[in-house]
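Long-time lurker, first post. I've been practising inverse folding by hand and with some scripts of my own, and I keep getting stuck on stretches where the structure tokens seem ambiguous. Below is the full token string for one chain I'm working on. Before anyone asks, I'm not after the true native sequence, just a reasonable design that respects the backbone. If someone could post their per-position residues I'd love to compare against what I wrote down in my notebook.
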């Protein structure tokens, strides 16, 4: 089977010239390029991808960790993949299910140079564990982090939640509950702080029973309404940090005869297609743009010296309140 040395000999050029042809190097005479390509085709030569990666010092692949196939992550992922395609990059997906050993597997691929970098759509690992691998290539998270070795593209969840709260207060609501996904995530903690701060500013008492966790799907929204209906005192408004769960809230509320927004007002998050269909007021985090910017951040960081201890970029993506009929 022909190898790169055989091709060089048959073409009457150096191995370096053949390597340049393989890598589309600009400093190769066009006639020479065509001659080498004809010989490779005639000899049935297929370059060893691992060897090419070693020559180029990159794989043209970026790893992406997604915890699940939830529409939230799919929207971020679509932005990453669109931007990657523009730059000739492929994406390798790792569905982690928030299991740390699965995230470690992806980090191992980065350390062995099988991918050029890694984007976390969300994470379970501690930041220090992730940062230990930043010396092997760019690591980007789709959430805010102060860690200097990790780049971040994110929504300011404190400000976004505060905006939703203020909108509800402007519409006459002070008895406000809310729903989040993972209660211990950085975004959920920022939202809780915004919630507590706004209640204190308006002299309202925080009601722990009005805070619902692990709400990510339609069935979780149904559970929230069923739970609320068992309470003597109920909130007049809910801030639901995910349109899928908010859809469940709306559908269940309507099924039992509650009027929206007269009996209960609802704000969602993400501006997924289902929110428009249901007339859901929501906060658009521009998830696709988060994905696109996450890839761009990775791409522009590829040639940064891994020994460089400088602070990695932190980019906030603006959010937008989309007013519909649920408030």
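-- Answer (accepted) --
I ran through it position by position. Result:
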């Amino acid at each position: 089977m022909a190898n790169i040395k055989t091709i060089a000999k048959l073409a009457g050029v150096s191995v370096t010239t053949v390597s340049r042809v393989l890598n589309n190097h600009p400093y190769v005479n066009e006639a020479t390029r065509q001659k080498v390509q004809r010989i490779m085709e005639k000899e049935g030569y297929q370059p060893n991808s691992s060897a090419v990666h070693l020559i180029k010092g990159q794989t043209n692949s970026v790893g992406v960790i997604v915890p699940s196939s939830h529409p939230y992550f799919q929207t971020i992922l679509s932005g990453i993949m669109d931007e990657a395609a523009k730059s000739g990059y492929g994406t390798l997906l790792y569905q982690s299910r928030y299991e740390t050993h699965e995230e470690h597997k992806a980090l191992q691929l980065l350390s062995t140079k099988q991918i050029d970098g890694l984007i976390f759509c969300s994470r379970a690992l501690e930041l220090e564990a992730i940062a230990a691998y930043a010396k092997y290539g760019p690591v980007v998270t789709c959430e805010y982090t102060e860690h200097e070795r990790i780049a971040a593209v994110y929504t300011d969840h404190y400000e976004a939640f505060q905006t939703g709260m203020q909108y509800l207060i402007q519409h006459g609501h002070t008895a406000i509950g809310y729903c989040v996904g993972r209660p211990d995530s950085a975004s959920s903690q920022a939202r809780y702080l915004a919630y507590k701060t706004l209640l204190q500013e308006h002299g309202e008492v925080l009601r722990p029973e009005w805070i619902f966790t692990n709400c990510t799907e339609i069935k979780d929204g149904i559970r929230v309404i069923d739970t609320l209906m068992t309470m003597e005192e109920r909130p007049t408004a809910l801030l639901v940090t995910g349109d899928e769960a908010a859809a469940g809230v709306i559908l269940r509320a309507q099924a039992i005869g509650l009027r929206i927004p007269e009996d209960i007002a609802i704000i969602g998050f993400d501006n997924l297609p289902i929110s428009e269909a249901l007339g859901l007021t929501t906060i658009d985090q521009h998830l696709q743009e988060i994905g696109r910017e996450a890839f761009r951040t990775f791409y522009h960081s590829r040639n940064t010296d891994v020994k460089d201890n400088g602070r990695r970029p932190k980019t906030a993506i603006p959010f937008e309140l989309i007013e519909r009929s649920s408030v």
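A couple of notes from the structure itself: Residues 223 and 249 are 8 Å apart (CA to CA). The first strand starts at residue 61 and ends at 66. Happy to go over any region you disagree with.
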